[in-house]
Design goal:
Order of helices and strands: HHHHHHEEHEHEHHEHHEHHHHHHH
CATH topology of the largest domain: Fumarase C, Chain A, domain 2
Family: Belongs to the lyase 1 family. Argininosuccinate lyase subfamily.
Main location: cytoplasm
Number of strands: 6
Radius of gyration: 31 Å
Number of helices: 19
EC number: 4.3.2.1
Catalytic activity: 2-(N(omega)-L-arginino)succinate = fumarate + L-arginine
Subcellular location: Cytoplasm
Structural class: mainly alpha
Largest sheet: 2 strands, antiparallel
CATH superfamily of the largest domain: Fumarase/aspartase (Central domain)
Number of domains: 3
Bound molecules: arginine
Shape: elongated
């Protein structure tokens, strides 16, 4: 099979090389970007008088035909064509004849692939940000219902202080909002056209890069051609953005797994989004959050993989770079399905406030409140207050009760400066609502936080 680049070769490529060298079986995903890029390029060549209007028209019609064939499944993707750029150009030339051979004037596959892949990545930054917003909306709905549902706030996975479930979910809303901003800023930073950089050094043809860039929706034109054809920062960025987002998803997933255990019993995932065991008939497994946690690993792999591919490359384009696509495609698909399924799992899960409340009754969650009381009401230095509270905790343990249930007489035995008003501080709900500082868990503060996220989502 004759290659487009075979002019200087006397023997044809081996089948084994074809297999090894080809990207067409996966880069065909970029066919729309490739055809649009070719159209923009041809339009520019026509404006500059490098193509005649008639030649442009032929190319335009021919590309429309190619697109139709691809979308109807008629198009034959051949390993021997190497990549989608050559596959499409070859078919164009079969359809319109020699004019098709003029399309590649003032262009190289190096800037062509940079255009196609960059535009795919840019679009995916925005699409993933959109899916994140939908997920946030679902979380807001659940959080809204639980701004006074108490559960133990933890550090070191040990009971720490009482918080409300809306506040807990608000932490994830904060993470996902930052993720959205990261995707959006990558979009803005990288919306720059590589088209017209040609192989590495620009072109002697009188082209108009601004014109083709505008056609493709780019904000501007890249500054240095040598950089542009070898730069894959935009791909690394989306991999990092997805990795960070998946890390957040994985943390939430870990909590969903814990919460749906008998030990916690804070939520029950719906039957629709749970699975059974092949041997243990009683089981209902949280496969969705487990898989989300697991898939985070493959996304990290893609990020580290591409960083490694790039690290030793001399300027400018090297074929190593062809390894940039599969990891990105896989990570993007993983991100998309993960966001969708997590949204559904959250939407359909049952929250169990009674169990959350019950869990607050162990672990002396209002201990810090007693210490704060001693500081504020009794003017005791915090270190000493901490010590006195420790005694009260020990007493409660001895009595087999939670500190929130201790009687005044025991507290007075420990320190006679304590008076009756202490009991209010020990009530778990009061403890939660006492945390009125900015960003704190008090129901009122939580509602303000949720309003902030709602407003953010509405503005979007
Ligand atoms: N299939 C190649 C890639 O994905 C396209 C660019 C090839 N350029 C070249 N000079 N061989 O990177």
């Amino acid at each position: 099979m004759e290659k487009m680049w075979s002019g200087r070769f006397s023997a044809s490529a081996s089948n084994l090389l074809d297999q090894f060298n080809a990207s067409i079986m996966y880069d065909r995903k970029l066919y729309r970007e490739d055809i649009e890029g070719s159209l923009a390029h041809a339009q520019m060549l026509a404006k500059q008088g490098i193509l005649t209007q008639d030649e442009f028209k032929q190319i335009q019609d021919g590309l429309a035909q190619v697109k139709k064939e691809i979308e109807s499944g008629e198009f034959e993707w051949k390993i021997s064509d190497e990549d989608l750029h050559m596959g499409i150009e070859k078919r164009l030339t079969q359809i319109i004849g020699d004019t098709g051979k003029k399309l590649h004037t003032a262009r190289s596959r190096n800037d062509q692939v940079a255009v196609d892949f960059r535009r795919y990545v840019l679009r995916k930054n925005l699409e993933i940000a959109e899916l994140l917003k939908l997920l946030m909306q679902e979380i807001v709905i659940v959080a809204d219902k639980h701004t006074d549902t108490l559960l133990p706030g933890m550090t070191h996975l040990q009971h720490a202080q009482p918080i409300n479930f809306g506040f807990h979910l608000g932490a994830y809303l904060s993470m996902f909002k930052r993720d959205i901003e990261r995707f959006e800023s990558s979009y803005k930073r990288n919306n720059i056209s590589p088209l017209g950089c040609a192989a590495l050094a620009g072109t002697p043809h009188n082209i108009d890069r601004e014109y083709s860039a505008g056609f493709l929706g780019f904000d501007s034109v890249s500054v240095n051609c040598l950089d542009t054809v070898s730069d894959r920062d935009f791909a690394l960025e989306i991999l990092f953005n997805i990795s960070t987002m998946m890390m957040h998803i994985s943390r939430l997933s870990e909590e969903l797994v814990l919460w749906s255990s008998y030990e916690f019993g804070f939520v029950e995932l719906s039957d629709e989004y749970s699975t059974g065991s092949s041997i243990m008939p009683q089981k209902k497994n949280p496969d969705v959050p487990e898989l989300l946690r697991g898939k985070t690993g493959r996304v990290y792999g893609a990020l580290i993989g591409l960083l490694t591919v790039m690290k030793g490359l001399p300027l400018a384009y090297n074929k190593d770079t062809q390894e940039d696509k599969e990891g990105v495609f896989d990570s993007v698909e993983t991100a998309e399905i993960s966001l969708e399924i997590l949204k559904e799992a959250i939407k359909t899960m049952q929250v169990k406030p009674q169990n959350m409340n019950l869990a607050c009754k162990v672990g002396h969650l209002s201990a810090t409140d007693l210490a704060d009381y001693l500081v504020e009401k009794c003017n005791i230095p915090f270190r000493e207050a901490h010590f006195i509270t420790g005694k009260a905790v020990a007493k409660s343990e001895e009595l087999g009760i939670d500190l929130s249930e201790i009687e005044l007489k025991y507290l007075k035995e420990i320190d006679e400066r304590i008076s009756e008003d202490v009991l209010d501080c020990l009530v778990l709900e009061n403890s939660m609502n006492a945390r009125q500082s900015q960003g704190g868990t008090a129901t009122q503060r939580t509602k303000e936080q949720l309003d902030y996220f709602k407003k953010y989502l509405e503005e979007k």
